[in-house]
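User: structure tokens for Granule-bound starch synthase, please.
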Amino acid sequence: GGLGDVLGGLPPAMAANGHRVMTVSPRYDQYKDAWDTSVLVEIEVGGRVETVRFFHCYKRGVDRVFVDHPLFLEKVWGKTGSKIYGPRTGLDYADNQFRFSLLCQAALEAPRVLNLNSNKYFSGPYGDDVVFIANDWHTALLPCYLKTIYRPKGIYKNAKVAFCIHNIAYQGRFPFSEFSLLDLPDTLKGSFDFIDGYDKPVKGRKINWMKAGVLESDRVVTVSPYYAQELVSGEDKGVELDNIIRKTGITGIVNGMDVQEWNPATDKYLDIKYDNTTVLDAKPLLKEALQAEVGLPVDRNIPVIGFIGRLEE
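Assistant: Done. Predicted tokens:
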């Protein structure tokens, strides 16, 4: 959805501004252009040591890195019907905390262990002088691990974390008793501690990943100035995190548009291509073609209104 759009458009835009940019995401599929780097790292998750392997491809100036582990791949293979977060709406996989804890720790390893030379301006590992942009609750443990595992060893001393909220409604709320699964010191318990009035997944006290991500990051950002205002406007719009976000502050940055992908002069899905000089001639013809295709009365003088958004409770 929206997060996929941002991760598709923002990194190439940052690379075009001269930054060295890497994205790290789970390897949910056998992506045909992502190659095995043969780099393996061992990560401690939930009291056991897991091995992950990194896959990589280089596109539009961006190192696209995928974290390979059986628990990512198995969720979209076979009978699961490509359900990434749960077997059906409203139900989560029991191993979500395990999997996204693995992703966060792998993302902290990637800049240090991957020797990437795709770009003629940059070579070798990224090192630890980096900025992490963590997106939504699944990546909220990243600043927590950075502070408790790496910084005490003198690694990532100057690294910063920006936490970006795309959808405040999903926060990663889990039973409080499961804090121990996260391999974090008790000093961070307060950042996760959360009480709500719901019985899911358990009644009463919970841990809240997004709350911790907001509190432990250096900056909190979101996808528009208006959404930033909305999140602090009250308990319903901030989905009970409004007080926490008011405390840290939040900056809304308008999502940019990928002008390469959304270019009507080159768009392969348009029967008639146009630019700013031919738009007034082409648009009525395209409108008629669309009306015909979807079975509406064909009339270039009728307004056609498109809506892109979510229909949700």
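User: Anything notable?

Assistant: Residues 263-312 form one domain.
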